[in-house]
Description:
The longest helix is centred in the middle third of the chain and has 13 residues, at 56-68. The protein has one domain (2-136). The protein is an alpha+beta fold. It has helices spanning 12-17, 49-52, 56-68, 87-94, 126-129; strands at residues 2-4, 23-30, 72-73, 80-86, 97-100, 106-109, 115-116, 118-119, 132-136. It is globular. The strands form two sheets. The chain has a five-stranded antiparallel sheet, with helices on one face. Strands 1-5-6-7 form a four-stranded antiparallel sheet. Residues 6-16 have low confidence and may be disordered.
Amino acid sequence: MSFIGYTPDIEEDLQMKLSEDKIISAQVILRPTSGRNITPETLITAENISQYAPSQESVNETSRMFSSLGFEIGTMVGISFSITAQVRTFVDVLKVRLRLTDRGGIECLGDDDTGRLELPITNLPRKLALHLHAVTFTAPPDFGPTDF
């Protein structure tokens, strides 16, 4: 596995796979205007999406703030939009260590070196973090090409 971030002893061949210049993306999930809680069990459908939708003001503000931090902003779809940038931007802005998984995905490493898809939002500006439910990488599919 390959590490990028606050880890000084990275093996060179693994580092090349997740170089600081590599472009990666994550999904930004915004808090619902309704105040409803989103859990892993929450099913958001066409019938109930309005109950989980963020305000347009929240969409505009978070997009602007992520853009000012160096991220390219994707189109808002449902309750989320994507942010895209070089690995170094994710590392510098979110103060994280990242790892390339054996399946070709990206993980954030916790203090205990456990990999997870969700990125911590505690290092983001408070004004931005207040709008966020989560910022997360997407796991690679269990089918199709494995070289991204």
